[in-house]
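Side project, low priority. Logging it here so it doesn't get lost.
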Amino acid sequence: MNTSAVEMVVPDAEGVTATDDTLTVECSDGRTVSVPLAWYPRLLHATRKERNNWRIVGRGQGIHWQDIDEDISVEGLLAGRPSGESQVSVKKWLRRRTSRPAKRSSGRAGPAPGRG
C-alpha cells in the first residue's frame, strides 16, 4: 500500500481570546480554533489580566504569554495537542506563584508611556 505525505501549511495566528474556560485563536486562513483552557494549566491558573497579556511570536506561528511564561504553537492547536508540561513542573510553578510577595502600589500614577 502506498501512502503519500500531505504537506500541511500552518496558518498564522492573528488574534487570541482567553475566557475562564476557553482559548480561542483566530487564524490567517479564516479558521477559528477553540480549545479547553484546561489543556494549558498556566493559562487556567492565570488572572484575566495575565491571559490578556499575549503577543504573537515566530512570524505568527505561536503565541507567548510573558507573565506566565507560556508558549503555544498554532500547529499544536490545530493538531489538538494540549500542554506537554509535566504535573511536577506545573505544581512547582504554582507554588512559586503563591509564595511570591504581592506587588504594592504607591498610590501614584507613573509617567505616561513614552514620557518618562
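Brief comment: The first helix runs from residue 41 to 45.
Revisit when time allows.
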